[in-house]
Amino acid sequence: MDRQELKHPLTIGDLARRTGVPSATLRSWESRHGFPRPARMAGGHRRYAESEVAAVLEVVRHRDSGLALETAVRRVVTESVQPRSVYAELRRWHPTLSTQELSKASLVALSHAVEDECCARAEEPLLFGAFQRDTFLRASRARWVELARTARAAVVFAEGAVAVASAPGLPIEVGLPPDAPLNREWVVVCDAPDLPACLAAVERPGQEGVPDGRRCFDAVWTVDPRVVRDASRVAATLADAYRPDWRPADLRALDDEPPGASADLLRASGLLNRTMAYLDASR
């Protein structure tokens, strides 16, 4: 027997019988939402791991409690697969996002623009920032203290950050262990209905001798409300893993599914992507 079949022993009929969800419905969910995720055998047949039974039943439970199917699927996928990287999860969930190579100097400029325009002006945003090392966080702490004053919550990640007791109006600091993949990332998320924005970047390897401001990152950014909400959910799940006591009392907004970006907004985002690439190349 093929090793794939040993790891994925269930047919779609088996999964349907074990969960009570008809095979046709499972195929529809896979087509529309990428869930459940089968392995494909040589002949094209679907095979499912045992873990998919519990995942499908959890989606059914959430849906029966009143959640929309898309929201239920996203919640189960986020909870069942512990994310390790905001950048990687955005690329996985939204493969059409444009990736750019940007220097740290350009990332600083773009981050400040997002912080000044979106984080500072949005109405009660949920904010996340990843700064790699504590020294970089300290350099930006005064900005984030100001941003946290009007935020629903402001969460900052960095290796070496001290998880001091949270105080109203101050950023919630989440310390990262040395081996955390998030230590290679640069993240700014402003999750707000009126001014959503997200920037996520991962540092390219092999830059030990490169001056700090010239370090290169692969970056994605967006103002699409759905992508921003996904980034917020991933960051919240990572914060749960590294600092379980961080959550404020009410974060139900993470369960909602915002509207997608308009065609005009997508075109404007594409223009800014191209502009950033030219500006970075001219440095």
UniProtKB/TrEMBL annotation:
<dbReference type="InterPro" id="IPR000551">
    <property type="entry name" value="MerR-type_HTH_dom"/>
</dbReference>
<protein>
    <recommendedName>
        <fullName>HTH merR-type domain-containing protein</fullName>
    </recommendedName>
</protein>
<dbReference type="Pfam" id="PF13411">
    <property type="entry name" value="MerR_1"/>
</dbReference>
<dbReference type="InterPro" id="IPR047057">
    <property type="entry name" value="MerR_fam"/>
</dbReference>
<dbReference type="InterPro" id="IPR019278">
    <property type="entry name" value="DICT_dom"/>
</dbReference>
<dbReference type="Pfam" id="PF10069">
    <property type="entry name" value="DICT"/>
</dbReference>
<dbReference type="InterPro" id="IPR009061">
    <property type="entry name" value="DNA-bd_dom_put_sf"/>
</dbReference>
<keyword id="KW-0238">DNA-binding</keyword>
<feature type="domain" description="HTH merR-type">
    <location>
        <begin position="9"/>
        <end position="78"/>
    </location>
</feature>
